[in-house]
Automatic annotation (TrEMBL):
GO molecular function, one term: DNA binding
Any one of the GO CC terms: nucleus
Protein name: Replication factor C subunit 3-like isoform X4
Organism encoding this protein: Durio zibethinus
Free-text function comment from the UniProt entry: May be involved in DNA replication and thus regulate cell proliferation.
GO BP: DNA repair; DNA-templated DNA replication
Domain of life (superkingdom): Eukaryota
Subunit structure: Heterotetramer of subunits RFC2, RFC3, RFC4 and RFC5 that can form a complex with RFC1.
Length: 296
């Protein structure tokens, strides 16, 4: 056996060159929250070694039991049909291929593989994180002597947007508002979410310098209470879309993305938030609003 194969790391713990990356990958697997990953680097830098170690960490030895197959695809590309052939390695848990082997038509191969995998292995959009949150909520409920209706903890976990802290806070809020719990009990939103909903209502009711000043104060209050500016903008967009006519929604989404990008580049979030959410939905002039705001 060549040394390159004999001393190739088989597990993430054995990695020497990319030890920090390997430990981060191991942590993701341990927490059962492994996202989409992109490995990049020059040839021979250890990408495949890390990937195979990751697969073994997730799926066990079965990741090494691969088969070679020649696949043929007939792809409808509008006015013509493309015939493509590619050699692949695959196990029950992964597929290994080199799309560049078919040249500039590589994107068709990738698209077909994704479609095939999505059809045969439905994607779990919630992942496994909700299961862990549910277990924590059930543990807290047991310690507090609370009786949880079937599915109640799962509903809180789903509403929490995969945030354990938020789930626990919502759980405690439900306990304060109503106990014993009921199976259809409403899961209340967070206080800051209700506050942003009020801001959206204020914006829709009136577009004036006075209202602009009031909205600015409320947004600033959210910021000083440590609500991240990108979360404020995203939630405000969500609330405004509920209230806007269909023809305005696409334009509002476009400008929300524009101002979110500007906010990432700038230093003072309040400037970019107020500039965006007061101007875009109602077609006012940006410079006029900004000058008016500075005067106030």
């Amino acid at each position: 056996m060549l040394w390159v194969d004999k001393y190739r790391p088989k597990t993430l713990d054995q990695a020497m060159v990319h030890r920090e990356i390997a430990q981060n990958l191991k942590k993701l697997v341990t927490e059962q929250d492994c996202p989409h990953l992109l490995f990049y680097g020059p040839s021979g830098s250890g990408k495949k070694t890390l990937i195979m170690a990751l697969l073994r960490q997730i799926f066990g030895p079965g990741a090494e039991k691969v088969k070679v197959e020649n696949r043929n695809w007939k792809i409808d590309a509008g006015s013509r049909t493309i015939n493509l052939e590619l050699t692949m390695l695959s196990s029950t848990n992964h597929v290994e291929l080199s799309p560049s082997d078919v040249g500039f038509q590589d994107r068709y191969i990738v698209q077909e593989i994704i479609k095939e995998m999505a059809k045969n292995r439905p994607i779990d959009t919630k992942g496994k994180k909700d299961i862990k949150i549910i277990k924590v909520l059930e543990f807290i409920g047991k310690k507090e002597g609370l009786q949880l209706p079937s599915g109640f903890a799962a509903r809180i976990a789903e509403k929490s947007n995969r945030s354990l802290r938020r789930a626990i806070l919502s759980f405690e809020t439900c306990r304060v508002q109503q106990y014993p719990f009921t199976s259809n009990q409403a899961i209340p939103p967070m206080d800051w979410e209700e506050y942003i909903s009020e801001i959206a209502t204020d914006i829709m009711k009136e577009q004036s310098p006075k209202r602009l000043f009031q909205v600015r104060g409320k947004v600033y209050e959210l910021l000083i209470n440590c609500i991240p500016p990108e979360i404020i903008l995203k939630r405000l967009l969500h609330e405004l879309l509920k209230k806007l006519d269909a023809e305005l929604k696409h334009e509002v989404c476009h400008w929300a993305a524009y101002y979110e990008h500007r906010m990432c580049l700038g230093q003072k979030a309040i400037f970019h938030i107020e500039d965006g959410h007061t101007m875009i939905p109602f077609g006012q002039n940006t410079m006029q609003i900004w000058q008016l705001l500075m005067q106030l």
